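lol ok so funny story. i was supposed to be doing the assay writeup but got distracted and ended up predicting the structure for this chain instead. priorities right. anyway since i did it might as well share w the group, maybe its usefull for someone
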Amino acid sequence: MVGINKKISAASARAHTRKKKQNSGLKLAMGMCKTISLVVLMVFVAFVYQAIQSPAPKICGSSDGPPITAPRVKLSDGRHLAYKEHGVPKDEAKYKIVYIHGFDSFRLNPMPLSQELAEDLGIYMVSFDRAGYGESDPNPKRTDKSTALDVEELADQLGLGSKFYVIGFSMGGKATWGCLKYIPHRLAGAALLAPVVNYWWPGFPAKVAKEAYDLQRVQDQWTLRVSHYAPFLTYWWNTQKWFPASSVVSRVIDIFSKQDLELIPRLLSGDRTQIRQQGESVSIFSDMNVAFGGYTFDPMDLESPFSNNEGKVHLWHGDEDLLVPVSLQRYIAEKLPWIQYHELPGAGHLFPYADGMNDAIVKSLLLGEK
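and the output, tada:
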C-alpha cells in the first residue's frame, strides 16, 4: 500500500508540474497578446493622429512660402491683410465700401463694380483676402469677431473715416453679420448677398432648420455635421477618399442652379492659384469651421444698428439658391423687420455676378433705390 501511495504521489506531482507549465505558458501567451494588442493600438492611434493632422501652412513671404505681390497692411497682432482697391481714389470718394469675399475666393474676385457707376457716384471700394486666403496671413484663432475686427483695422489703416459701408457675399455675408454684431458703430450701411447660415443658430425653430438642412445632399449634410461637432476632423474628412466629402470643395457642378451655371465662368475667370496657396486647412477648411462650428452669437438676436434710420441693412437672396436655402433667409427677414429683404425670382447663389446686379445692389445700399 505504501508503494502504491508513493506511485500516486509521484504521478500527481508530475501532473501538477505539467499543469503549472501549461498555466505559465498560457499566461505568457496572454501577456504576449496583450503586448501585441497594445502595440497595434498605439500604431493605429499614431496613424489616425497623423491622418487627421493638416500640413503646416506656407506663409506668404516665408522661406518656403509664396511671394508677396499685393499691398498689405500690418494688423495690431502682427498679421498682414492683402487688399485691392477699386473705383475712384479714396481721397476723392463720397462713398467708401469694404467688400468681403466668399468661400474659396479672394480679393481679386469681388462683386463687379462698374467704373462708370463708381465715377458717377464717387465710390471707392476695397476688397481684401480674409485670413488664410490669398496673401493674408492665417489666423489660427479666427472667429466671426476676429474677421469683423480685421475689417475695422483695415478701414482705419487705409483712412476710410469713422464710418464706411460693408458688402459681403456668401461666406463673406456671414462675416457681415459679424460686423453688424461687433462693429455696428463703424457702419454707414451693409449688404448681405446670399449669406451663409449656420443651421444650429438657436433662433431657427427645429422644424425650419431641419427642413432646410434636409435639402442638402447627404454628403454635404455629413460635412456640415463634421464641421459642427468635430471641427478637428474637417481637414481629414474633406481630403480622405473613403466617403464623398463637401460638394462645394469638390466643385460638383449639379449643386448649382441654372443661372449659376451660366455665371460660373465669370466667377472663375482669371488666375485663382493664389486662393489656397498657403494651405487648405487655413483657408477653406478654417472657413467651414467658423461658419458651421460653435457660434459666438445668433444674428436673430441683433437689434438694428441704425436706430435713427441713418443707414440701412439689405439682405439679397435668390429663390433658386441650391447652396443656401431661401427659406432660412425668409425666416431671418421675418424675425428682423429692420432688414431690407430682396428676394430675386429665378436667381441662384451667384446672382451678384449677373448683368446689372452689381449696380442695383450698390445703388440700393448707397441711395436707397429699389
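Confidence is low (pLDDT under 50) at residues 1-7, 43-49. The CA atoms of residues 58 and 64 lie 6 Å apart.
back to the writeup now i swear
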